[in-house]
Here is the input.
Amino acid sequence: MRRTTRLLASAAVTALVLGNALPALAQATTGGQVAGDASAPGDDTITVTGSRIAQPGAKSNSPITTVDAAEIKLQGATNIESVLNRLPQITADSNENVSNGSDGTARVNLRNLGSNRNLVLVNGQRLLPIQATDLNFIPSFMIQRVDVMSGGASAVYGSDAVSGVINFVLRDNLNGVKTDVQYGFSAHHNDNAGYRDRVRAAGFTPALSSPVDGQRFDANIAMGANFAEDRGNVTAYFGYRDVRPILQYNRDVSACALDPVFSGNPSAATALTCGGSSNNQFGRFVPLRDGIAAGGYNNTTDGNKTWVQYNPSFRYNYAPLNYFQRNDTRFTAGAFAKYQVNPAAEIYGSFMFMDDRTNSQIAPSALFQGYPYSINCNNPLMSAQQATLLCGAAAAGTNVTQDVYIGYRPVAAPAQPRRDDLRHTDYRVTGGVKGQIAPGVRYDANALFSTVIFNETYQNDIDPARANRALKVDLVNGVPTCRSVIDGSDPSCVPLNVFQFRGPSAEALNYVYAPTSTEGLDRETVLAGTISLDGGEFGMKLPWAENGIGAVFGVEHRRESLEFRADALAIAKGTKEISGAFNVTEGFTEIRVPIVEDRPFFDELSLTGGYRFSKYSTTGKGISTYKGEIAWAPSADLRLRGGYNRAIRAPNISELFGAQSPGNVTTQDPCSGTNPAATFQQCQRTGVTAAQYGKIIECPSEQCTGFFGGNQALRPEEADTYTAGIVLTPRFAKRLMLSVDYFNIKVKDYIGVIPVSLTISQCIATGDPFFCSLFNRNPRNGVLFGGDAATAGYVTSTTQNTGSLGTSGLDVAASYAFDTAIGRFGANMVGTWLRNLTTEPLTGLGKYDCKGLYGGTCGQPSPEWRHQARFTWTSLDDKGSISLNWRYIGATDLSFNTTDPFLQGSTYKVNARLPVANYFDLAASASVLDDVTLRIGVNNLLDRDPPAIAQGVLASFGNGNTYPGVYDVAGRTFFVGLSAEF
Here is the structure.
């Protein structure tokens, strides 16, 4: 955990003081002072994240939170997104705790405006194509620091830098050998009496009392060498990571799927109970005809061929086999090289590679409700009673067929959980030449090529088309035989007995199971060139300034393409293929003018401006982005800064060319069930007929259907971002730093979808014809779910330019250190106060604010206050340290319980408020040899349980009855690591 001279040289005054004073103190600080690396060997100019201008002692005019390598090690992190998700500015996005619906990637969501509105860089250049961004590609072992910059930066970096920039600064100048190995595991104690009693009451088995799981192994090595009298360097790295899964069965909070219990008048959810899916292991049947029992029928639990009226007691607990943490195996490799031919030409380049394979696992597949299966009324596999209830007394035993919804989930062997095999193979190559062609004149010409290859195989899934054929059965010489075998259309068909518990044979299951495969290919090419001028070399400086005017002029061309292909079965199940490309050509400039320096009351006064013009192949006109910044330091103790940025985000390929198709979304239909939550008048607005009211089937497992897809008519988003801050570094307390920064971001014409839950609540509450027109109920029975685009009922939620997004608040940071006779003590803290987080779904329609709320349309919790603080003791000889980390997540209220018509839903007394969560992590490190450091740690020291939340309340990134990206779900975790550098 040594700090290099280069890192220290890149920090501003405050960070330098702390870094020199506390070489073993990990830092996650916000001061906006952190700068980038020297622009060339032997050059004393530096470039900060958020600017392309290299000048001596440059400091950022935007708030920047920096996470250094020591902080990553003290967290025991092997996946970098978990480190970033602890920062209060960031809301969890795709991560290892998402199973159902995961694409296997890891992303970061700055300011909760969406992961596609922050730009991820590596050493100042784009990571991967924006729609394929994956933080798994980042070798955390090689990270020197991570700069998280708030505020728009499109004038500097181009599209996508709306909420800010995350710049991973990797170590590319190693001269020696560096190794690291770490092992960790989770050891949670399941002792929540309330959770366990609830599971027992439902007849399920509680979680194991003390599971040990989620093992992690991470091994890395890097080698580097200088050559040609230190004018060149080559650094290479190799890494391996293996992560074992955690099953939901092994945690109290997720041992069963949770449903709300409604009672009272007016009705309110007062408790949670173990629920699950109506696609159950015994078998549910809803004949699509008049005169059936409310809710349809179910096979009895005793294995007889008898139907009884369906009731919620038949629900299947789908939770135990679901992954709470996915397994993952990752290989990384790469190299960085540079060689200074002469001062006018330094050749540089890099190569990065990743092969990452992960599996998501969920409950066994089923014949799912929503697909209209068809059974012949004389099927010999069913009893006479079942035939009568299915087809009616007149048709029972005849050759006619009857359409029916079936919810039958085989669970006995050889039935297996569904597994999604997700593999990403990524390549990234950069190269360029830079140098000084005259005093004060530098150039940089470079290219970037990246490729993301995605392969997905979905296993153990029932093919509804095959199942439909296997349900049409006749007797041939006394042997049940598929009609498709008799007529020769499918000789391999095996009859499927769904008319009793554990009825399907192994041969029938092997027939209906059919894996699907998809593959994607993302490519990005970036060609860029810049000319930098230091006006000081030409006497271009104001008379009150020590440094000259700095300027950068550049051009950039970027092309992105995507091809997504699916096999025939995946297409038959509704998967759509995608192909598309776009390019953009840009010109940009940035100018910094020091006005006054080193004068009384004006230690610094400077202005910075930037402009970029972009011409996209998908739009008919060019787009301008620009920025203006000011910094004033009356003295070395105080620095004031502010900035305005006009940023854009152009639609990515998926948003432009994505095919339209149905997909699951967590919500419930208020017009379903025998006693609907909404009145008939309200439901009539959504397309419910009088004959359907009170007879519509609930969305299974709280999973209704939305209709999603791209739109080639999309326009770029525009954003206005404002920042203003103060940084205090008082000389009377040389190791003290305090900073407060205000941020305000508003995105206009944002590219997104109208959330299905919002459409439902708005139509029911207000009757707004726009929202009500988005309902497309199945005309046959009024349901809002289904098997494919032809048979599903759904709510339209396709991509479009909608209204506006907005957020504002304060970032607060502090750090301090002092020496004592027993060692050195230091502390640092980063916190964010959220003032507002607003969404205007459509221009002029009105806004809703998710500050302090969670659930439904608001999604993951957005507390008003979050912080992370670290307290560290370091020995006098700098050979040992002990560090305590405190994570605070403020309380949030359920959005359903508000009076806002955009958010209001069913009343919940249970889950009405998620309480404050405090997590404490303890770590220690010690030098066991001159070049070898041992570290050990415990995260979630007190083994705190996450809050248990009803499945109908959970929204995006909810899993296992909670929000695993926000709250710790693994429980107490241990790690031990060994680092060496020589």
